[in-house]
Design goal:
about 170 residues, alpha+beta, 4 helices, about 25% helix, globular
Length: about 170
């Protein structure tokens, strides 16, 4: 894994990205506790997720690609925090990077683009749940002004053990 910066372009995600985004996410389903999903997805099963992130509005999908290869290096999303109407001005945000794309500023570029896109929306707070331990994700979120507001202890069970989730918030 190289620590060199990669030439990256960030753009809204689209249906043409579905297979690559599904493959990227499935890596985390199979190999890590970062997501608490435990069964891999087909692209068709992930289509509703992709379609729930249009190019405008509070729920966005930003994709990072290499400028040369156009291969997807990662993505960031904003999604509903909770379903009840009073939560409508809050979003949950997340970043997923291809395993070989970490440490090169890709997550930072994705969050910069995401928060810039959200700046004109009627939003008040962003929340991020980070399965522990995940120091790289904690550092990324703190760099963007997130502060730790609490930890759910042993809230998820995957790979035969329990995992904590630390919750972070930031003003929008």
């Amino acid at each position: 894994m190289s620590s060199e910066r990669t030439e990256v372009q960030v753009r809204p995600g689209n249906e043409g990205d579905l297979e690559a985004l599904t493959d990227l996410y499935n890596h985390y389903v199979r190999e890590t506790p970062i997501t608490f999903d435990t069964a891999i997805f087909t692209p068709e099963e992930r289509r509703p997720w992709l379609l729930s992130h249009p190019e405008d509005g509070p729920y966005r999908l930003m994709v990072a690609t290499g400028t040369d290869s156009q291969e997807i290096l990662g993505y960031a999303t904003s999604s509903p925090f909770r379903a009840k109407q009073a939560y409508a001005t809050s979003v949950e945000v997340t970043v997923y990077l291809r395993p070989d794309a970490g440490g090169r500023g890709v997550g930072t570029l994705l969050y910069k683009a995401l928060f810039e896109a959200l700046s004109g929306e009627d939003l008040h707070r962003a929340y991020a749940g980070i399965a522990q331990p995940n120091e790289a994700s904690v550092r990324l979120h703190e760099r963007f002004g997130f502060r730790h507001v609490g930890t759910y202890r042993e809230v998820g069970r995957k790979f035969g053990r329990y995992w904590d989730v630390a919750w972070f918030e930031r003003d929008l």
